[in-house]
Structure formats: C-alpha cells, structure tokens
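Let us begin with a simple case.
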Amino acid sequence: MEILAFGVQADEKPLIEHAFEGHHDVRCLDVSLTEDTAPIAAGHEIISTSVNADLGPRVLQTLAAGGTRMIAQRSTGFNNIDLEVAERLGLTVARVSYYSPYSVAEFAWTLAMAVNRRIVRASSRTRDFDFRLDGLMGRDLRGRTAGVLGTGKIGEAFTRIAHGFGMNLLGWDIAENPACVALGMKYVEKEQLLAEADLISLHVPLLPSTRHIIDAAALKAMKNDALLVNSSRGGLVDTDALVTELRAGRFTGVGLDVYEAEAGLFFRDKSLEVVEDDTLARLVTFPNVIVTSHQAYYTVDAVGQIVDATLKNVLDYTAGRRSENVLVPRAS
C-alpha cells in the first residue's frame, strides 16, 4: 500500500522514508493539504498530514469521496480537524499523543533569551561591523518570576529550566503537576500570574476555552516590561490586541513560534510574494518581537518520535488495532 504524506519538510523526508521502509511505500509531498490539493489523495486509503493541514468538512468530504479511510496526523494538536465530520464520513483519525517535550520547552527558552538579550539585533549589527551596545541591555532572570500557563509535560520541562535559572515559579492549570510543585511552583489564578510574572510562557492546548486566553484584558494585566513567549498554538493569543499593546510601547520582548493565522503562510516560502496579512506584517516590524515559523518541535529527536508514532498508527490501523493515539476509531 502507498501512503501519501502531505506537508513534508526536506529534513523530515528521509526520516519518514526510512521508518516506512519494509512496511509500506510512502510518497512525500512538500505541499500542504488544502481544498486545492485534496484531490491528489484520490486512490490512497491512508494519508498523513502536518499540523497546518486543512481538515475541515470540504477537504474531508473530498478525501472520503476519493477513497481515503485513514488520516495519520504528524502532530499532537488536532484543532485543525473536524472530528465530527470525520466520524460521520467513516474516516479513522489518529495523531501523535507524545513526543519529546524538551524540544518545545528548550525552544521556548531560546525565544525568551533571544528577546531578553536582543540576540537578533546584536547579530544583525555585528554582520555590519557595528559593535555598539546601545539598545542591547537585557535583564538577569535569576530572582525574577516565571509564569507558566499549562504545566503538562512541556510546561514541566520549561519549569525545570526556569528553576535552573533560579527563578520564582508561578503556575496555572486545571490540575497541579506534583513535579512542578516539588520544584517550588506556586499555583495561582491566571489573573495573579499575569500581574506578577516577569516571563510568561504558554503551554496549553488550543481549545474553545483557551482560544485568546491572552486577550486584550490579559495583555493589559501584564507588567509593562514583561516577556511573553508562545510556542504552543497561535490561537492562544489575540494578535490584534498584542499589536495594539506593542504600539503603545509595552513589553520588553515577545517571542512567537506560532501565529493564529499561520495556515497557508508557515512552512512556505513567501519571500517573493506580497503578504496580505497586515497584522503579521506589522508584528514582525517591532524590534522587540521575534516570530519563527512553528519550529519549536523541529529537532531530530522529536521528529523521529513523531515519525515512529505515525508509522505505528498506520500499522495499528491496518491490523485493526486501536491505541491512545486514535481520535476517531475505525468504523466497524
């Protein structure tokens, strides 16, 4: 059987091909799954998709009509998939429920340190042999307060690094993580965390209840010199409200690896095109903001685990097995 994999990055392709060797043929496409590309899947019982694939009703209907019966998404998040429609159409859907939390936590810290210590600006200057220090002053993080929204596996990994920096720890989640408590984390209401934290990092999933969890009111509650990092899902932050606050001169730094309107932009080369997203265009102009292209997970360790889990999901489907990765089970 040939598996069709959409949205495969160049570095990811050899890992996928090696993993599937001896099991199934796999054809890797660098194009993402959209309404326009969905017809390509015709005749393929199993497809694999990336996190920014469009798996809304129209795409799912096209897939089902073309003979697709199983979707193996190569990510933990699945907010891009209409699960109710998939179930109605008889499509099995599986995701990757776990991969290295350190990849994302370490990248979140990379963003935090980069904006705090003005690394991008400093690097750009030295390339032009400008070695002035004007505008490059950062802050020690030791003794300051880290606020972690979401203390699951990734949030815990982020917290352990914050503890290593000697920071005070505030957490918010629906349930306390004993490992974080053991590190000295104090769980508080979200409003208190936003008001007291010097560094705020987001590690909650994107759900209806968490969409725009950082909205205009939340942003106004934060310290004027706070650092904000989002390496989870773009929809957690109201980007228009964030731009408004940045224009008012607030926040020492903002590091975003995700953006709420990233679908159709991220993972693609748009350098020769006019980007019509005015919010993103404005966002990247602020000197205290770093935007990266949803790469926090992108380590050989994490991607290797994602690929292995995707293969297992495919093998489970063909063998009629069900695992914890299944979001919509195989129709009986």
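The second case is a distinct protein. As before, the sequence precedes its structure tokens.
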Amino acid sequence: MVPLLLLVSSVVGLISYTNAASASFVVPCHAADEKCLLDNLERGIKIFSNGIPELGVEKLDPLHFKEVDSSSPSLKFILRDLTVTGLQSCKPLKLKRDLSKSTIVIKLECPVKLDGEYELDGQVLVLKVGGNGKIHVFLKKLVIEVTLDMVKKQKNGEEYMKVKKFTHTYELTEKSELVFEGLFQKNKVLSEAANDLIKNSPNEIVNEIGGKMFEVVITEVVKNINNMFSHVPHNQLALD
C-alpha cells in the first residue's frame, strides 16, 4: 500500500525536466548528493501523488482497486472495492541511487488507510476465522523500503530509464487499527474471540495476510513511474 509513495518519491527526486508544469520543485542532483535527493523527495511527494497528466502519471492518492486476492493455502482472503489513502502524507527517510548496481532505494514512513469489502475464510494466526463485510485498516506508521532495479532503453535516438523490477520490505512501528465487520455473524462466541484477536494483535495479522496489498500498491506506483520515464529522456532525469 503502500507502498506506493516509496516509488513515487524516487522518481521525483531524479527529475529535471523543464517543460512540465510541476518541475519547479526539482533541483537536479548527482547520485552522491543524498541530501539533495532527499530534499527533492520531500518536496515532490504531494505533487507526484496528485498526478502529472502530461507525463502519464495518474492520481495516486486515493488509489482504488476493484479486487485484490490475498489468499494463501490456509486462508481465503479477497478484498473488493478497496480504497487506499494517505500516500501524500508519507515522510521521506532515504533516497539513494547506486550507479554501479543500477538501483534506486527509497525508504518512507507513511500513515496509510484502507477501506473496502472483504471475504475471509480459513486460519489467521492460531484462530479459525470466517465472514464477509466491510474492512477498515489504519497503519499508523508503515515504514517501507523499496529497491528499484533500473535499465536504460533507446528510443528515437534518446536514452530512457525504466524500472525492470522491484523488491520491498516493510515494518509496522506502531500498533495498527484493524476492523473486520461481520465476522461470524451467526456465532457470538466465535465473533468475540476473533475480534479480540484482531484487537490485540493487529500488526501480526497484517504481517500474515497483508503482503499482497502492499505489492499491488507498489506495482501501481511503478507503472506510473515508468509512464513518466517513457516521456522524459534520461539526460533530463539525472546529472549522472
């Protein structure tokens, strides 16, 4: 879910195009100048998450997903009509370019909210759970780090950057809020047991069942980063 801003920010920190309306916040940086990169990232998060239509960047806060299947062998977990908000409030922690490895590493701390509908059936931690209804998630401090593997491509005599793949890690550094409405609607005892588990161990539950949610958010951001990269030659994105 993220996950989203992580990637967005990386792009912002590298851009130095002159014709885009939102380029005024950018100060071109060398890869070794991490303070310059981080300053650009801080200025650029809100601009990028609001979208840059002329560069193919869609609005990223809020994000909407029709369906996300986060199931595992022991759990059926489907999310529908999911809305993710909070990305433009992310705090930049690190933006680093490694020219020798052709990577960009972004680290952010984000307050992320997710709201939608869920279908749940199987085992979560030590408890058998089941139900469907509305889901509400508030990740108060989601610290996420994304590594982008970059490649360069030739087009019309110009060199362009592209994210070939990404990897990510995350950590919840404060207790999250997690609500599943409608768990075991016909069994009060099971409903209370499940809700107690969720109330007492929200971070553990997110860690166990939330991986796909982070992945789809980051994937959406990477898509928009590549949309932008396809419009702007490499020599307008970085000083080295």
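Helices lie at 5-14, 34-49, 188-200, 202-209, 211-229. The radius of gyration is 20 Å.
Keep these points in mind for the review questions at the end of the chapter.
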